[in-house]
Structures are given as structure tokens and as C-alpha cells.
Amino acid sequence: MTDYTVVDAGDVEAMRGAFRKMRLALGTNAFGINQIELPAGASGPEHDEEDTTHEEVYVVLAGSGTLSVGDEDVPLEPGRYVRVGPSVSRQMTAGDGGITFIAVGAPAAVEWTGRPTL
């Protein structure tokens, strides 16, 4: 049997109407991955990942907004990727049309253990 999982985001219940726990739905333990859908003007919680040691990558799928990273504001649009280290505070705020993004997280490592060409 081939080892893979297919999940449609629309089939995963959105916690508090915004947060789709894709890691749980996919059954992966190598990294966290979630889809977040914020309505216009809404903000996610300000937080860091110091306790988990996770670095996170945010990928915008639709809409626009701002990611406050430490003391800087990063404008977001579809196709933009932003990596944030574990100890840095971050907060996502949706623009006028809302924002849909993916957050991927895993413990920060000293060096890459995957294929060197990736």
C-alpha cells in the first residue's frame, strides 16, 4: 500500500471559524501545517514559538494583509512567503478583503537534513 493522505481543506472543520488543523487531518508528525482564514480587518493572536522552538513559514493563498514581525510590518499578498524564527513575536492582520494563508512550522535545526539540492 502506498503511504499518502489526501485532504480537502473544505472538509476540515475551521476552529473558531478560521483555523483548519491540517496537520491533524493529514496525520503528519514531521511538521505542523494549518490553513487560516481571517475575515477583513481581523487579527490572529500575537505570539512567538519560543516554547516549541518552531520556526514558521507563512504562505499567502488569497487576499492580503500585514504580518507584524517584531517591530516591522511585512505587507502580504498571494505568493509571498515569510519565515519567522522561534523567538520573534508575530501577528497576522487581514486586509480589506480578508486573507487565507498556510502556516508551516517545525523545530529549528542547526543544519538541513534533507537533500542538498532542495
Description:
With 118 residues, the protein is mainly beta. It has one domain (9-107): Jelly Rolls (Sandwich). Helix content is 4%, strand content 46%. The protein has 1 helix and 7 strands. Strands 1, 2, 3, 4, 5, 6 and 7 form a 7-stranded antiparallel sheet that branches. A hairpin with a 3-residue loop joins β1 (14-15) and β2. It is globular, with a radius of gyration of 15 Å. The two termini are 27 Å apart. 19% of the residues are buried. The model has no long low-confidence stretch (mean pLDDT 95).
Write the layout of secondary structure elements.
Elements: E1 14-15, E2 19-20, H1 22-26, E3 32-38, E4 54-69, E5 72-76, E6 81-84, E7 90-107
Question: Which properties best describe this structure?
Answer:
118 residues, mainly beta, Jelly Rolls, 4% helix, 46% strand, globular
Strand content: over 45%
String of helices and strands? EEHEEEEE
Helical fraction: under 10%
The CA-CA distance between the termini, in Å, is 27 Å
Strand segment count: 7
Low-confidence stretches: none
CATH C-level class is Mainly Beta
Mean pLDDT: 95
The secondary structure category is mainly beta
Q: Say what the CATH topology is.
A: Jelly Rolls
Rg (CA only): 15 Å
CATH architecture: Sandwich
